[in-house]
Amino acid sequence: MNPPPIVRLDRLGKRFGDGPPVLEDISLEAERNEFVSFIGPSGCGKSTLLRLIAGLTPHSSGEIVVDGLTPEAARAEVFVVFQDANLLPWRRVAANVDLPLMLRGDSRPSRRQRVAEMLELVGLAGEAHKFPWQLSGGMRMRVSIARALSVAPRILLLDEPFGALDEMTRDQLNEDLLAIRERDPFTAFFVTHSVAEAVFLSTRIVVLSPSPGRVASVIPVPFPYPRCAELRESTEFLRLLAQTSHALRAVHAPEAPP
User: Fold this and answer.
1) Are 195 and 248 contacting, i.e. CB atoms less than 8 angstroms apart?
2) Which 3 state secondary structure label does DSSP give 84?
3) pLDDT digits over 64-103, tens only?
4) How confident is the model at residue 257 (pLDDT cuts 50, 70, 90)?
5) DSSP label of 121
């Protein structure tokens, strides 16, 4: 018997107050350790969808089940990484990674060990005593990911975490993120405006239509993990990149007149 999906969305809808719907009739299931990316036009509700899964915003209609629970009850299993690293500037790198462990009430020795493990995992073991302002943008984002992974979440929600970085740094962090996931598995939901990023990272890509956001298409990504930089140069990658770009352009296209 197959295990139940770790996240199930059933005819999910969201509107704010009396305004028009932001999301409508979203149905989707994600298996454990999948990497699902959401792409679509600006304003189609991608970030809102992550907030609904995280239980940060209540949904208006339909149902969300996260690891067998409501999103609010499953918050301990979920961590969100935003586009801004959101590090506390007065706390050193190690202290920033330690913060969720401290708030959870873990003992000081276990926290110290876990922080060291996470900084080693993201390649920042030598930066523990620096302040965020002493790090590059890419390094700050690594700290943010280390902080998220410190509590061993089953589900990691990433809202354009690399969107403000240059292409070379973003590509490297994509590779680093997948390498981290190989060593410390989690289910990922990832919002991006980059089709190439979505194709490189994902097991499936969900294309959302313009507001109200609906599932326009779901594109499976067949490449096995682990994935390396050379994948981006392969014929199969470029073919899937073109297919996904076409699906994205299709939702942008204006409707033909009757």
Assistant:
1) yes
2) coil
3) 999 999 999 998 889 998 888 889 999 999 999 999 999 9
4) very low
5) H
Structure token digits, residue 98: 């330690």
- Tell me the domains of the chain and their CATH numbers: 7-252 (3.40.50.300)
Residue 128, both tokens: 């523990």
242 Cβ contact list (under 8 Å, min separation 6):
none
Contact 118, 146 (CB under 8 A): yes
As a whole number of angstroms, the distance between CA 69 and CA 253 comes to: 38
Q: Is the peptide bond before 226 cis (omega within 30 degrees of 0)?
A: yes
For residue 214, give every residue at least 6 positions away whose Cβ sits within 8 Å of its Cβ, in sequence order, or none: 23, 24, 25, 26, 208
Between β-strands 35-39 and 61-66, what pairing exists: parallel, antiparallel or unpaired?
Answer: unpaired
φ, ψ at 228 (rounded to 5°): -120, 170
Contact between 198 and 162 (Cβ < 8 Å): no
What is the distance between the alpha carbons of residues 109 and 257, in angstroms, rounded to a whole number? 67
Cα three-residue angle 88-93-96, rounded to 5 degrees = 45
